[in-house]
C-alpha cells in the first residue's frame, strides 16, 4: 500500500491543521490495518462537486493535501486541493448562480491552499458563493472558507484554529544511546534539513520558525477584512455562536439542506469579499 505522497506532506512540512486531526492521521498511518475492504471504502468517498437542484455544492472534507489518490481519499477521508480546483472549474461552467462550499475539515497542508483560495475568490466575483459547516471548519479549511466570503455554521460546528506548525521527530540522541553513530554527508547549507538522524541546529530551527511565522502572518492578513481581535487568532477554535460574536462566522444555520432550501440568495455582490 503506497502512501508516500501523504507521509511526505504531513511530516517536516508547514501545516495549517488542528493538532487533534494531525494526531489522528499520524496514528492511523502508524497503525494502519493489514487488511482493508477498499471496495466499500471507495464507495463511501463523497464527490467533491455535487449539484443539488439550483445550487452547486463543493464538498471539502478531511485532511487537505495538494493531491490525493483514491486510496488516500478512501482511507483518510482526504481531499486534494487539485480536486477542489477542478470542482470550482465545473461550478464556473454550471448554469447555477449559487455555490456552497460544504466543509468538514480540520485543515492540512499549506501547499496549494493559497492557489485554491484565489480560485474561490474568482468564483465569488461572478456567482453567489458562501461556505457552510455543521462539523469543523478550521485552519487551512477556514482559510478557504474566507475566500468564499460569507460563512455559516450549525450551532455545534467549530471554526478557527488560525496558525501553522511543522512537526518532526529527530532520532540522533536515541541512535547514539543505542550504540549507533549517525553520519550525514551532504552539499548545500540547508540540504537534508529535518532529516531524522540529525538534530536541528539553532540556525536550522530558526529557518523553520521563520517559515511558519510567514504563513501565520499571511493567514492573519487574509482575515483582516473580518476585524477579528488578534487574541482570537492564536490557534484556538470556537463554536459557531461564539465565532459569530467575534466576527469569525456570519451566522447560524442548522443544516446544509436548510441553507439550500430556506436561505434567500442575494444577487448583490458579496459584501464580505476583501
Description:
The chain is an alpha/beta fold and 274 residues long. The protein has one domain (4-166, 227-258): 2-enoyl-CoA Hydratase, Chain A, domain 1 (Alpha-Beta Complex). The chain is built from eleven helices and eleven strands. It has helices at 4-10, 19-30, 38-43, 70-76, 81-93, 113-124, 140-148, 172-177, 202-222, 240-245, 256-262; strands spanning 15-17, 49-52, 55-65, 79-80, 98-109, 128-133, 136-138, 150-153, 158-160, 237-239, 251-252. It is globular and about 65 Å long. It starts with a helix and ends in a 12-residue tail after the last helix. 35% of the residues are buried.
Helix-strand layout with pairing:
Blueprint: H1 4-10, E1 15-17, H2 19-30, H3 38-43, E2 49-52, E3 55-65, H4 70-76, E4 79-80, H5 81-93, E5 98-109, H6 113-124, E6 128-133, E7 136-138, H7 140-148, E8 150-153, E9 158-160, H8 172-177, H9 202-222, E10 237-239, H10 240-245, E11 251-252, H11 256-262
Parallel strand pairs: 3-4, 3-5, 5-6, 6-8, 7-9, 8-11
Antiparallel strand pairs: 1-5, 2-3, 9-10
Helix pairs in contact: 5-6, 6-7
Condensed summary:
By secondary structure, the protein is α/β, with parallel strands linked by helices.
CATH H-tier superfamily: 2-enoyl-CoA Hydratase, Chain A, domain 1
* Low-confidence blocks of residues: 263-274
- How many helices? The count is 11
Q: In the residues, how many domains can be counted?
A: 1
Q: Level of helix content?
A: 25-40%
Which fold does the CATH topology refer to?
2-enoyl-CoA Hydratase, Chain A, domain 1
Regarding CATH, which class? Alpha Beta
Amino acid at each position: 500500500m503506497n502512501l508516500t505522497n501523504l507521509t511526505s506532506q504531513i511530516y517536516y512540512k508547514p501545516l495549517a491543521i488542528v493538532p487533534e486531526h494531525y494526531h489522528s492521521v499520524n496514528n492511523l498511518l502508524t497503525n494502519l490495518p493489514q487488511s482493508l475492504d477498499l471496495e466499500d471504502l471507495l464507495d463511501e468517498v463523497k464527490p467533491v462537486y455535487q449539484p443539488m437542484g439550483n445550487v452547486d455544492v463543493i464538498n471539502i472534507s478531511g485532511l487537505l493535501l495538494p493531491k490525493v489518490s483514491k486510496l488516500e481519499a478512501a482511507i483518510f477521508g482526504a481531499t486534494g486541493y487539485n480536486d477542489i480546483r477542478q470542482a470550482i472549474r465545473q461550478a464556473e461552467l454550471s448554469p447555477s448562480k449559487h455555490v456552497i462550499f460544504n466543509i468538514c475539515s480540520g485543515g492540512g497542508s499549506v501547499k496549494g491552499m493559497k492557489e485554491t483560495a484565489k480560485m474561490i475568490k474568482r468564483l465569488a466575483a461572478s456567482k453567489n458563493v458562501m461556505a457552510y459547516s455543521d462539523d469543523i471548519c478550521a485552519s487551512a479549511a477556514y482559510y478557504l472558507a474566507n475566500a468564499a466570503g460569507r460563512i455559516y455554521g450549525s450551532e455545534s460546528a467549530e471554526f478557527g484554529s488560525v496558525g501553522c506548525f511543522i512537526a518532526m521527530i529527530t532520532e540522533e540522541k536515541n541512535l547514539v544511546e543505542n550504540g549507533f553513530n549517525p553520519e550525514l554527508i551532504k552539499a548545500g547549507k540547508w540540504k537534508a534539513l529535518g532529516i531524522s538522524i540529525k538534530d536541528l541546529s539553532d540556525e536550522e530551527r530558526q529557518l523553520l520558525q521563520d517559515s511558519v511565522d510567514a504563513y501565520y502572518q499571511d493567514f492573519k492578513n487574509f482575515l483582516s477584512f473580518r476585524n477579528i481581535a488578534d487574541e482570537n487568532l492564536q490557534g484556538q477554535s470556537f463554536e459557531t455562536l461564539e465565532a459569530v460574536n467575534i466576527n469569525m462566522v456570519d451566522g447560524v444555520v442548522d443544516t446544509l439542506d436548510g441553507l439550500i432550501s430556506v436561505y434567500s440568495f442575494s444577487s448583490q455582490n458579496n459584501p464580505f469579499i476583501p
